[in-house]
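Quick one:
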Amino acid sequence: MKEKKAELQRQALEYRKAGTSYRFIAEKLGISLSTAHGYVAEAIKQVRQNSKETAEDLIELEKMRLDAGLAAIWNQVLGGNLKAVRELRENSESRRKLLGLDKPTKISPTTPDGTQPYPAYGLDLSRLSEDELTTFLQLAQKAFVPESGDPGSGGGHATG
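Output:
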């Protein structure tokens, strides 16, 4: 009797990992909804006790799921099935996110030839005379502050 219950718990967990509902599990295994829920909960508890999964283990499990999904559609992809190709792209996107492959690359701004750090905003204000600096600051203020002085007026850009 214990072996049958253990097998039902294993099957219930497999169905749940596949994303099925508890109602589906209950119907498929011929058990009540509350029993399906209890079997899954007990199976998860046993998994935790037995394996003490680490983050790396969970990543490996997810990679196996992605591999299984890819294997299921691969022949269709090779056959040119556009729906399968979209599924492949989604699978690949999930894998890249899981593995952190899509992290943004830090880019250091440089001059067009790539040899020198780019000056802030492309301007070297230290070379301006006092009059030029004053004019620059007035223009900059006009460009970023609404003329009405009301920050909520929707302005903020010089209209020329």
